[in-house]
Amino acid sequence: MLPHALVLPVGAEDDGVVTEDTEGQEHGVEPARPPLSEARAREMTAGLREAMDDVRRSVAVLAAR
After folding, report:
1. Do residues 36 and 44 lie in contact, with contact meaning Cβ atoms separated by under 8 Å?
2. How many domains does the chain have?
3. Chunked in runs of 10, what are the mean pLDDT values of the chain (65 residues)?
């Protein structure tokens, strides 16, 4: 799992329209996260490499069809 690696794009659920539900919320930047430890950075890097290998394999299978 990559908890801090991806940010979801703005979609229909956040169209910028202020409603009763969003009235009190500011549309600012989230506070900065603490830096990753070296071990956690290595773990995330390994996970990303593994995911990219999966993508490469999938592309190769699709290209072979």
Report:
1. yes
2. 1
3. 52 59 63 90 97 98 96
The string over 20-52, giving b where at least 16 C-beta atoms fall within 10 Å of a residue's C-beta and e elsewhere, is eeeeeeeeeeeeeeeeeeeeeeeebeeeeeeee
DSSP 11-53: -GGG-S---TTTTT----PPPPPPPPPHHHHHHHHHHHHHHHH
The reply to whether 5 falls in a domain is no
Asked whether the whole model's pTM tops 0.70, one would answer no
Give the integer Cα–Cα distance in Å for 18 and 25: 9
What is the number of residues in the chain? 65
Within-domain flag for 14: no
49 lies in which domain range?
A: 37-64
